[in-house]
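Lab notebook: predicted structure, single chain.

Context: the supervisor wants predicted structures on file for every construct in the current expression panel, including those that have not yet been purified. This is the next one on the list. No modifications to the sequence; it matches the entry in the shared construct table.
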Amino acid sequence: MASALEKDKQVASKNLMKGDLDMKIMNKIKIQWKTIRKAFTDINMEKTGNISQHELKFMLNFWGMEPNEVEFQRVFKKFDCDGDGVISYKDFQHSIGSEMFPQEGLYFRQDMPQQGRITSCNHPQCFQPTKNNQNFCEVH
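Prediction complete. Output recorded below exactly as produced.
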């Protein structure tokens, strides 16, 4: 009975490994998690702040994907953008996040400065805007 189960597992793994492994991983992450932050924290089981090779291998095996060492190293290097040997959250965002969860980058754009709230002068009958969080305009 155990050998039949093992054989079925090998057949399923071969079927999962057909095609582009990178896209299969991305699709699995997109289906399983709603946000990239949650995906990262769940894959980072040791809670070190970085996804190690061991953690990624565990997750791939959990999903039934058993790549050979060469294929695994290729995938890991693709996700490890800065090449430091671990997948940081920033690496995860650059390699997976922008492609899979583009809406997460729309909330707070880092490349555009945020404009502060425009207030008007506190002087009676003056509606000129103030500058730098002051209470009165340049005239008053």
